[in-house]
Amino acid sequence: MKNLIAVGLLFAAVHVSQAAAIKFDFKDPKGVNTVNFTMDAPLEAISGSANGISGEVHFDPAQPSGIKGTLTVDAASMQVPNAMMKQHMHGKDWMDVATHPTLVFEAVSLSDAKTVGEVTTAQLTGKLTMKGVTKTVTVPVKISYLKDKLEARTNGQMKGDLLVIRSNFTVKRSDFGINPKAPVDKVADEVALTLSVAGSAPRS
């Protein structure tokens, strides 16, 4: 009997914890959610962006360390100023967009979290998948929970909360099989990524 009660209490605690988390949708109707990337090689600096971002993140303002969710980037939305360079980037040797249409980051755990007011800074560990290769990475994040700010962002059209996630980190394209034979004096192996995205949690 005691074991059944303990199991029941544990289930209730988990249920309450899950219920407290707010679901934020990162499919941005304004189209301003962006990932910027830069490869700064000795002979050439290549910069671009991707704005085909979607996904869901579950976040409890009272327990930021319990954050879970997935962000997905449409690989075909990756842009660079040079049209020929963009064609190469989408091609088989580079991102192979036809075969691997998405880049995915799945949040696994949050550590060293510090919350001041509405802002939490921490180290976010997750699984990053690019060109079909998945690696575990840990990146610094700044998470801002903006209660009742969705109305201001949508010019009064929707009520609800916002979750803004920002991060700056680097990955090696060779780790993900992204044209590892390319000369690093022209195309840097290290790719600097800047993430700035906002998710919404509408309510009536």
**Low-confidence runs:** 4-18
Summarize the helix and strand pattern as letters. Answer: HEEEEEHEEEHEE
CATH superfamily: Lipid/polyisoprenoid-binding, YceI-like
Tell me the count of domains: 1
Q: What's the CATH class label?
A: Mainly Beta
CATH topology: Lipocalin
What is the number of strand segments? 10
User: What is the typical, i.e. mean, pLDDT?
Assistant: 91
Question: Which class do the helix and strand fractions yield?
Answer: alpha+beta
From the spread of the alpha carbons, the general shape counts as globular
The amount of beta strand, in percent, is over 45%
| Biggest sheet architecture | 10 strands, antiparallel
Radius of gyration from CA coordinates = 19 Å
Short summary of the structure?
The chain has helices at 2-20, 83-90, 150-153, and strands at residues 22-25, 34-40, 45-50, 53-60, 63-74, 102-116, 119-130, 133-146, 160-172, 190-202. By secondary structure, the chain is α+β, with helices and mostly antiparallel strands.
